[in-house]
Amino acid sequence: MADVARVAGVSSQTVSRVSNGFPGVTEETRRQVLAAMRELGYRPNSAARALRRGEFRTLGVITFSLSTMGNIRTLEAIATSAAGHGYAVTLLPVAVPTQDEVNGAFSRLGELAVDAVIVIMEIHLLDAATVSLPPGVQVVVADSDAGDRYTVVDTDQAGGAREAVRHLLELGHDTVWHLAGPEDSFAAQRRANAWRTTLTEAGALTPPLVRGDWSAESGYLAGLRLAEERDCTAVFAANDQMALGLLRALHERGRKVPDDVSVIGFDDIPESASFLPPLTTIHQDFAEVGRLCVEGVIGKMRHAGTAHGTTLVPTRLVPRRSTAPPPERRGG
């Protein structure tokens, strides 16, 4: 720093103010200092600066799976929102969804210099009795039913599923089959429960639930089974990727969409409008989930907040060409 001050012709205190982004330095002086830094290859010591300020300007994100579109888009939204607030993001992946792995991820926080943590993970892995949180580290959880034990931000999973089922019932379908996500997924559980409840409230029969694993391949395999159900005229797929596989299976089995079978998905991934036919789906606002997670955890850091509870981000129906009235109700 003394060398930079000498080359720039300023005091070491001025160099410190520039490197830390403090006000009170003229634009001309700031340019001189930055030019001297570049000339000498000087880089401010971020660790020392963090110790002085008491923060690292970095958020940790713990997640299990990066293979699902929902987690990837949530992580992307968190990183974008964090950058807008001047924070970097450190990803702490959990190899397998076990309590020991979750504990290990939290223990690594002490080594990775993060100020707070956002967790994208099922709540059954966040048992407060066994997970030891680092002292003073604030936590916000995405996609969970943690309720009043944590601060939670989530999509309105149940509301979106209800809207999907009602859309198909209002088109005139007698009932709606469901291609659900994996059993251990909170989101899949919420969507399946809402599907079942909505059918019951409408007085419709509840068909057997068919399960996939979020992948297009699992949707394809489930679709081969559903194509054999001749009374199946409408399917609610728990995500768009399984809906993609379902569309392929129905096509191969000669079941036209939406002439013979209507299909609706969940997520509204960017590619869903390019499916054949374009997919009717439920839009999730991943950007808003990411923004609320980041703002929530920063707010807890700055105000030592302890408020728990869940904030739900609304969904909305995006009608496209994969849904229509059932065959017997078309054409008058």
From TrEMBL:
One MF term in the entry's GO annotations:
transcription cis-regulatory region binding
State the residue spans of region: Disordered.
309-332
Q: Which UniProt keywords apply?
A: DNA-binding, Transcription, Transcription regulation
Record PROSITE patterns: HTH_LACI_2
Q: Which CDD domains match?
A: HTH_LacI, PBP1_LacI
Q: Where are the transmembrane segments?
A: none
Q: Which part of the chain is the HTH lacI-type domain?
A: 1-53
Keyword Zinc listed: no
Its name, as the record gives it, is LacI family DNA-binding transcriptional regulator
Q: Which species is this record about?
A: Streptomyces sp. R28
